[in-house]
Structure formats: C-alpha cells, structure tokens
Amino acid sequence: MLFSLLAFSSVILKAQDDELPPPSSHPQAEIGLPGQQGFHQYTKKKTIDLSNYLIEPGLHLSFMQGGFNIGVSPYLGYRVWKNLYAGAGVTYLYTGYHNIGYPDASGAIHYTNASGNTYGGGVLLQYNIWRGFFVRNKFEILHRTIDGVYDATVNVNPQNNTTSIYLPKIQKTIPDMLLGAGYNMLQTKNIFIPVMFSYNALYSVTDKLYSLYPHGWVVQVGIIDIF
pTM of the prediction? Predict the structure, then answer.
C-alpha cells in the first residue's frame, strides 16, 4: 500500500513539472512591469561633436563697376590639431552686368546687358587664435563662363542704321590663394560669419580682367566682399 502511494505521488509531481515553462536563456528580458513585454536595456545614441568642426555658410555678394556677383561658397573644416582646422568647399556665383555702354565709330554710346556663371571649389587651413580671431590660407580654382564685356564689338549696319553689340563668351579657369586674418562676428568657435582681410598671393599671375579678385586685396564683411 505504501509503495502504491509513493508511485502515485511521483507521477503527480512529474506532471506538475511538465506544465512549468522552460527556463529562459535571457533572464533580464523576462523582468518587466505588468502589461509590458519585458525590460530592455537602452543605450544612449552617439551625437556629433560640433566643437571639432568649422562651418562657414559662405553666402557671397560683391560689386564691381557696372555689375555684381551673388552666390554661395560654403566651407566645412575639421579640427586636425588643437586649434588648427583643415577643410574644403564649393563655390557657385552668378554675375550680372546692367547697361554697359560702348561707343560706335561716330562716338554714340550704345548699351547692353551681360551675365555669366562661376563654379569651382577649394581647400583651406585655418588656425583659431583667441576669442574669434583667426588666420587662414585658402586655395581655390574657379572656372568662369561669362560674356566678354572687355572684348565687345560694336557693329553698325549703314543700310538700316541699326547697331548691334557682340559679346564673345569667355571661359577662364583661374586659381587663387587668399592669405588673410579676421574676426568671427558670431563669436563662436564653429560657425563663421567673418570680418576678414586677405591678399591673393597669385594676383600677379592671374587674369585681372576676369578674376574675382582683380585688385589683389580682398575685404570681407559678413557675406559681402569689397574689392
């Protein structure tokens, strides 16, 4: 009788063990609040450290006799050593001339408009000195496709007494190296809207008629270049 009771008890205990869920290989995943699937460990997402970057939006506006340049020239740099940044950027400018006058053989003045496009890019090295003050070396190569306002031809048709002005399309690839110093008006270490004085070290070997820096010296105030 005793043997039969022991056998019957062992069968009941085995049946109860079979009804239990198997142990989890990830015990932490089973811990959670009521109504939740379980506890999951979250890791903080990595963010970009902007203190290592130099950002210059590079909006550009400049004026010359009878015309203007407007466009963008954004540059992005990265800190390579202490306060020294190396970077690169691209440039696009639209050039417009309005009412340029040309005399014909009789001395009468005739007027026309002209335009052009400039695109290219460059690299820079910049060292931040102290509280917004910096020095910079920027080398760029710009390709210009522009109406030849300095090579115009005035044609007069004596039969109907009409005048036409021919502007040849000029294509120039011009390198520039701007050495300068300035101050960041935003007083930040990363985003630059500068006041800067620069000199084009390649001024003596560039085409001064169609260069963006025809006088060698460049004064930049915010987004405006004053030549």
Answer: 0.69
